[in-house]
Amino acid sequence: MSFLVILEQRQGAVKKASVDVWHTVQHMVEVLGKTDVYGLVMGDVDKNVIRSRCGGKGRIYMLNDAAFHDYCPECYAGAIVEMAGHTNAENIFFANTAMGKDLAPRIAMRLDAALASDCVIGLDGNGLLKAVTTMYAGTVSAVVENLKKRAVYTVAPRSYSFEGLGENDVEILEGKGECLSKSNSVLKGVIYNKGRKDITESDILVAGGRGVGSSENFALLESLATSLGGVVGASRSAVDEGWRPHSDQIGQTGRSVAPRLYIACGISGAPQHLAGIAGAETVIAINRDREAPIFKVADYGIVGDITEVVPLLERAVCDFQRMK
Questions:
Q1: Residue 125 class from Cβ within 10 Å (0-12 exposed, 13-18 middle, 19+ buried)?
Q2: Which phi and psi angles does 169 have, rounded to 5°?
Q3: Using one digit for the tens of pLDDT, what is the confidence trace for 4-61?
Q4: CB under 8 Å to 186, separation ≥6 — which residues?
Q5: How many CB atoms lie within 10 A of CB 181?
Q6: Is 55 helix (H, G, I), strand (E, B) or coil?
Q7: Contacts for 55 with CB less than 8 Å, ≥ 6 apart
């Protein structure tokens, strides 16, 4: 059995979502034993950056041709199909990002492979690859059975690290690839929230919902997030109110996140929102309504007004940091 993980990069940085997929596969390989693991990153990324972020074992191929610096579906798809043939990969994994969701169906079609989207991967009791996907806003889970020789997966965000993988023994190789397509040239690149970490890249997220009350009250969340070294996100309700931009929206109609710590402030916990935070490692909920559904999935809950609780929480964080 062999695995190929597509490592997504933007502006020379490997995306957290795809690094998490790499480590998910690495943890499976620890159990399986004799399994070849390959990675592929397209674009100008420093070897040391990859080595510092991707632990475990295997080979990661880098395609540094200038044509791969900007995302081009045809270029990327051609390189991935070629790499799948070179490595004889039976299972190909993407992060469930916009790029992953765009590329995965193309790859599945070209390789005549099965496709499982937005799934959680792992091993069943017999040591076979198991993919579980959710439907109807996360209220129903389905086990995906692969009936073909190959399968392509877009993997839902999960917070993973290379802790417990032992010594880093990843070999990084310069690959060869050429983009022959001229039909997808980039006319203009637009960067939103320049200088601010993307919500999908942060290990700490402080998110607000309608219970925050106003756009002005989001300043409390911004201050708490800054003290923790995190960023601010929002529920759909807060975005619909015009309090936050759509790029901050978390949930089924927004973005899926997998932080190490997620603090939900004034968020009731609708199924559509919970579907977007399923990969969070630790969830803290702050809400005035003790019956709010968010408390059912939270690891820790605080019943109270966010205008009172959040400043106290920030003060406790600052006091703790001064003690270190």
A1: exposed
A2: -130, 40
A3: 999 999 888 899 999 999 999 998 988 888 789 999 999 888 888 898 889 889 999 9
A4: 70, 71, 72
A5: 14
A6: coil
A7: 23, 26, 161, 162, 165, 168, 170
**At the fourth CATH level, which superfamily is domain 2-174?**
HUPs (3.40.50.620)
Neighbours of 184 (CB within 10 A): 13
Interatomic CA distance for residues 264 and 207, integer angstroms: 5
Q: In this structure, are residues 244 and 208 in contact, taking their beta carbons and an 8 Å threshold?
A: yes
Specify the 3-state DSSP secondary structure of 109: helix
Q: Which positions make up the binding site?
A: 210, 235-236, 249-253, 266-273, 287, 305-306
Q: Indicate the annotated binding residues for FAD.
A: 210, 235-236, 249-253, 266-273, 287, 305-306
Place of tokens 């983009």: 179
Q: Is it the case that residue 255 has pLDDT exceeding 60?
A: yes
Say which CATH superfamily domain 204-323 falls into. TPP-binding domain (3.40.50.1220)
In the chain, CATH 3.40.50.1220 sits at: 204-323
Q: What whole-number distance in Å separates Cα of residue 209 and Cα of residue 213?
A: 8
What pLDDT, in 10s, does the model give residues 116-167? 999 999 888 888 889 999 887 777 889 988 889 999 999 998 766 555 566 6
> Looking at 130-144, 233-247, 249-263, 288-302, which range is the least confident one?
130-144
Report pLDDT for 165. Answer: 62
Q: Delimit the CATH 3.40.50.620 region(s) of the chain.
A: 2-174
Q: How far is CA 121 from the centre of its chain?
A: 14
227 within 8 A of 314, measured Cβ to Cβ: yes
- Enumerate long-range contacts of 242-249, CB under 8 Å, 24 or more apart: 242/215, 243/208, 243/212, 243/214, 243/215, 243/218, 244/208, 244/215, 244/218, 245/192, 245/193, 247/192, 247/193, 247/199, 248/199
Q: How far apart are CA 272 and CA 308, in angstroms?
A: 27
